[in-house]
Each structure stands twice: as C-alpha cells, then as structure tokens.
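Quick one: Gas vesicle protein from Pedobacter quisquiliarum, structure tokens please.
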Amino acid sequence: MTKETKIIAGVLAGAALGAAIALILSSDKTDDLKNDVTDWLTDLLDSSKDKFASVSDSVKDTVAHAKDSISHAKESATDAVKDSISKVKG
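--- reply ---
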C-alpha cells in the first residue's frame, strides 16, 4: 500500500468516524438511530481491518516471492560465473 493510499484511507476513515460521532452526539431521536450508527461504524471498522490484513498478507507474499526470485537469480549467476571460470582454466 502506497503512502498516498494510506493517507486517503485514513482521511476517509476519519471522516466516517467523525460523521458517525456527530450523528450520535447531536441526535435527539430514539436509541435506534444511535444503535444503527454504532452497528454501521463497527461493521466499517471490521471491514477496514479485514482489508488491511488482506493487503498486509499480499505484501508479505510479494516480498517472499521477490526474495525467492532474487535468491534464484543469485544462484544462477554464481553457477554461470563458476562455469565460465572452469572453461577459462580448462
């Protein structure tokens, strides 16, 4: 996740949280509205946690794959150099 994406996600989450809190604090209506907003906010936060966990797992997998690719490339390059040296000595 890029820095800009994190900033945008944070701003949107903050705006949603602020709107929900404003509705809860300013509402003179029944407790049903407060409960609905609280449930919505809880669902939003849970969904955000799930998405961030998914992105985190994806990044970890990508990093692991990149490490494996680099390790394989290093081994291939080492073998090629060794073959070249043995041909020169040969």
